[in-house]
Amino acid sequence: MIADVQCVCATARAASRELTRRYDAALRPSGLRTTQLSLLSRLADDGPLPVSQLAARLGLDRTSLTRELAVLTGRGLVELGRGADRRSRVASLTPAGTDALEAAWPHWEAAQAAAFAALGEDRAARLLDDLRAVSALAGGAA
84: part of which helix (H) or strand (E)? Predict the structure, then answer.
């Protein structure tokens, strides 16, 4: 039944998995995955953030974010400190995290250039606009 219909969700998820595989492969020499790079980038851009706010900014559920933060804190790339109250935690980028982000950036740029080349500049720009529109439906930040 569903195979006969063009499912927006299934198509978007398949495309997301393929793009993630390609970006992860390009980032492999840096030791980071796409989700980790996004997290480090967000902290570099915004500064320390409460975990709940970081999850919202990244469009991740807290469980997924907590898993990624455990890996990154274990590697010394992110620190978790106490927030405004005893129950909240604040994530911040460490100097090692900044170094890892800078080392990974050329690999991300190569993946980005490959994606734009494969899609063509105009299609890639339209795709980004369309994805931002979808993200805005749920109040997401892209």
Answer: none
The answer to whether the CB of 28 falls within 8 A of the CB of 36 is no
Token output for 34: 């796409």
- Give the largest Cα separation in the chain, rounded: 52
Domains defined along the chain, listed by start: 26-137 (1.10.10.10)
What one-character-per-residue DSSP string does 7-53 give?
A: -HHHHHHHHHHHHHHHHHHHHGGGT--HHHHHHHHHHHHH-SEEHHH
| Residue in this structure with the two tokens 């931002």, named with its chain if needed | 132
Which pLDDT band holds residue 5 (cuts at 50, 70, 90)? low
**Highest-confidence segment of 5-9, 33-37, 87-91:** 33-37
> pTM of the entire structure?
0.85
